[in-house]
Design a protein that fits this description.
single chain, Aminopeptidase, 5 strands, 4 helices, alpha+beta, 5-stranded mixed sheet
């Protein structure tokens, strides 16, 4: 088995769409994915033998607001530390890019909150910070 290849390169549009499909997320138009990936601030991918196993990216304005998006590991590779490899790279990027006063946000999938808490992220339970909210456009 080949070693893992961890890089700061984006996935291809086809890889991104395939990974989303594997984990049960909605499909998106290719032109939307192309533009979204191009507008990202940072990418990290993990591959083995050229196959995408997982990815993560950071979006935002690059100054005050950073948002961790699409931390995704293919179902066959979950539980093997690939998510941690991705988050380690994301956190290294944020240490350099996010200065004092910046905010880093994310939406954790249900049951994955503990994974992000290891990196210092807090649940917005409504007590100190209010509840987080989102809206999905379909």
């Amino acid at each position: 088995m080949q070693p893992l290849d961890i890089s700061a390169t984006p996935p291809t549009v086809a890889e991104f769409l395939h990974l989303r499909q594997l984990i049960g997320w909605d499909s998106l138009p290719e032109q939307v994915v192309t533009a979204s990936l191009a507008a990202s601030l940072f990418h990290c991918t993990v591959r083995q033998d050229g196959q995408l196993l997982g990815m993560a990216r950071v979006v935002g304005d690059g100054y005050m607001y950073f948002y961790i998006q699409d931390v995704v590991v293919g179902p066959s590779y979950q539980g093997q530390g690939i998510g941690a490899l991705l988050m380690d790279k994301v956190e290294a990027y944020l240490r350099d890019a996010a200065g004092p006063g910046a905010t880093v946000g994310l939406l954790a999938a249900r049951g994955k909150e503990g994974f992000y808490q290891r990196y210092g992220y807090l649940e917005r339970n409504g007590e100190a910070l209010g509840l987080g909210m989102c809206r999905f456009v379909r």
